[in-house]
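[Meeting: bench + compute handoff]

Bench side (C.D.) handed over the final construct sequence. Compute side (W.E.) agreed to return the predicted structure before the next meeting so the bench team could plan truncations. Sequence as handed over:
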Amino acid sequence: MNALQKTLAIIAMLILVSQTIRHAYLIWVEPRGSVLDKYDQPLKNEITGATSLDELLKRYEPIRKQVDAAKEELAKAGKPYGWQEGVEPYKSESALRAAIKDWEQQSKEIHQLRFYWLIGLVLYVLGLLSYSKFSRWLGLTLVVAGFAEFIYWTSPTFFGPGTREYDRLLINKFAFSLVSLALLLVVIRLNRIFANAQELPKP
């Protein structure tokens, strides 16, 4: 069993360390500016500066009304809508709509992260108790299931930057990754997974 525990611990350590470093890079190091930003101002600043979903919605509503009015005029004139998508107010409406959808998705992911990470913590605690008091195999299974939840829900996100909710998601993932890594070190220490053969207690 010790060989299996070593293998699982090494795999979990590699994953958690690498993704924690990646989260830290995305939060504090990755450049987010672009030479094309000046062409998207001031709308991009409005989107990235929004502190809540309601703030984005307030900016979206008047532009959406402009788009609806413009669509009605196009319909009366018998002109198609599609070729207008790259010009204002359609361009701003599309950018704000995408930002709102991203915010909602990232907020949903934060809730999922917290909920499933807590489920993983329950499995982790039950696993430690089972390992020490009932069955080592059952305990190991529950601990592995707990770390599966930790690793999956703190894995890198594929939604790009653009709103403050994205930053909040990254910070949550970074924090939970760090805690998961600390819990892994606790398991390694308690079960003496990397102890030398002569240091292991006799069965």
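W.E. noted at the follow-up: The helical segments are 2-28, 37-40, 43-49, 53-77, 90-133, 136-153, 164-191. C.D. will use this when planning the next construct.
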